[in-house]
Every structure is written in structure tokens, then in C-alpha cells.
Amino acid sequence: MKDNYGRTINYLRVSVTNRCNLKCQYCIPKSMTYKENEKALLSLDELYQVIKAYCEIGINKVRITGGEPLVREGIIEWISRVSKLPQIKDLAMTTNGVLLKKYAKDLKEAGLNRLNISLDSLDPDSYKSITGGGQLSSVLEGIQTAQMVGLAEIKINTVLIKDFNDHCITSFVDWTKKEAIDVRFIELMPIGEGIQWSKDRFVSAETVLKKVPELYKIETLDQSSPATYYQLPDGKGKVGLIKPVSCKFCNRCNRMRLTAEGKIKYCLLSEETFDMKKSLRNEKEINGAVKKTILNKPKDHQLESNSYITTNMFNIGG
């Protein structure tokens, strides 16, 4: 289905929880003790019903997000159910990787196709600091396990942060020379706790090209991808630059977002939402509501006008 600006909307990101087993500084405020209100969440069955309705009007790509999706009870069985929807051609997950060693085999058997892993440092001490106590070794072991069980198409998402990981850029890029892993550098977005972080520690994704000048641009088949891709000579993997702040890509956006509480977000960088939970729980026919959300998708975000999102990233689904 096309929106009012001629974009084909075929991608739904679904947050299954706001909870996370890490506490990344730019995502969750230091002072915050988060306790999820289970009653406020959509049930897994309700999440399935929304996905099914979107699939019936053209969605064929679904990404499961959080919080950390692997902390949601019943997630493996639910993924198995979602994977059987005939319209879905690509079922992926974004995870911090901490629980991946435990669940990788189950995820593969449940029908998951791909993984994006959020990883902001390859230095154990820096990783522990930014994540509020996380162990880098757990994530690296999880990645190895995922590769072993056949979840081989892995993307690493690295948020660029001044004076924290900008000195690690070369190490991340070198990883793509040795392994068929894509590393995507993402500009720090002014969302929630990240608003102040973005003001103080923003690093343009173009910094990657300055630090590693041997990278050369390559063409990819997926024109809707937010990343521009590069590669090292003889590199096995790719390097992606995602620039929502310095170079907006709204004209090719093909996605909608469903939060764990049942709000449809038309755009990551907008506060505007539609309450799908209300339609579900009032036993309304939701297909009309689903079509309405696609037609209501805005043309673009307004970051250049300092229109920032105060909702924290873990409440949005990324």
C-alpha cells in the first residue's frame, strides 16, 4: 500500500517490550528505575493481530524490537507463530545480544531470518561503562553462536558518540574485512535522554570516511535502506552510514512502528501516534485503522526546526 506521498509501505517494526537488561546512558536516564506496567502492554496475541492486519494490506517485512525483545516471556513461540504468516518474506530482530548465546538456536528454528545487534564499543571497559554494567564477552559469544546456527546475516548497529567510541571506528571497520558482517554507524539522534547527548557528543557519520579513506561506495539492491553502504578493498562485509540528522532520508522511508503499548508511530522522529490498542480492545475492525495510519504518515521529520522527541528511545522501539 502506498502512502499519500507515493511511498510503498511494506515494513513494520514491532516493539514487544520496553524492558531492557542493559542501561545505555543515552537511552535510559541514570536516575530512572524502570518497572514495566504489564497491563499497559499489548498481549502477544494482540501484537500478532496487528501484524496480521498490516500484512493483509502489503507489509512483507517485520522487525522485532524492544527494549530488549528477548526478555519478553513467550517470545520464541510467538516468533514461530509470526513467521508462519504467508506474506512475511523477511523476519528480523534487533537485540543487544546479551541473551543471544542462549536463544540463537531457538530463534533460527522459530523462523527468524536476520539479526541486528546494537553494539557501541569493542573495548570491554568502555562497553561496561556505556551499558551500565554489560559484559562485552557475552555479546561476542552470542554473535558467534548465531553464526554457527545459521543466523549468518548479521548487522552491527553502532551509535557514534564523541569522546566515547569515535576512536574505535577503525576497529569496527576492520571487523568487516575479516568477516561477512555489516557494521552500520548511526548518528546520535536527539530523542529523549539522547537530546542532551546529541548536543554535546554528536559525531557526523562522515567522520568514518575521513578516518578510513580507503572505503569506497557501493550500490545495494534495497533502495529503501536508511544506510549508504561502503566497503574496504577485499572486505567480506560492508560499512553503512545512517545519517538521520545530517542527511534526512524521509523520501524513501517505507516503515511504520508499533510500540509495546499499542501506539502506531508514523515516524521515529515525530511524537504523533495512533492508538491501535484502543481499536483492538473495543473489538473494532482494525483493517480500516491500519489503512488510515499509512495514509497519515507524514512527509518528513522536522529535526532541522529543533522539533525533538522527548519520549525515550526504549519506549519507541528504535
Automatic annotation (TrEMBL):
Protein name: GTP 3',8-cyclase
A single BP term in Gene Ontology: Mo-molybdopterin cofactor biosynthetic process
Superkingdom of origin: Bacteria
Binding site for [4Fe-4S] cluster 1: 20, 24, 27
Molecular function GO terms recorded: 4 iron, 4 sulfur cluster binding; cyclic pyranopterin monophosphate synthase activity; GTP 3',8'-cyclase activity; GTP binding; metal ion binding; S-adenosyl-L-methionine binding
Organism: Natranaerovirga hydrolytica
Cofactor details (free text): Binds 2 [4Fe-4S] clusters. Binds 1 [4Fe-4S] cluster coordinated with 3 cysteines and an exchangeable S-adenosyl-L-methionine and 1 [4Fe-4S] cluster coordinated with 3 cysteines and the GTP-derived substrate.
Record-linked Gene3D superfamilies: Aldolase class I
Family classification: Belongs to the radical SAM superfamily. MoaA family.
Reaction equation(s) it catalyzes: GTP + AH2 + S-adenosyl-L-methionine = (8S)-3',8-cyclo-7,8-dihydroguanosine 5'-triphosphate + 5'-deoxyadenosine + L-methionine + A + H(+)
Keyword terms: 4Fe-4S, GTP-binding, Iron, Iron-sulfur, Lyase, Metal-binding, Molybdenum cofactor biosynthesis, Nucleotide-binding, S-adenosyl-L-methionine
Database matches in InterPro entries: Aldolase_TIM, Elp3/MiaA/NifB-like_rSAM, MoaA, MoaA-like, MoaA_twitch, MoCo_biosynth_MoaA/MoaC, rSAM, rSAM_sf
Needed co-factor(s): [4Fe-4S] cluster
Record-listed GTP binding positions: 13, 63, 94, 155, 255-257
Function, in words: Catalyzes the cyclization of GTP to (8S)-3',8-cyclo-7,8-dihydroguanosine 5'-triphosphate.
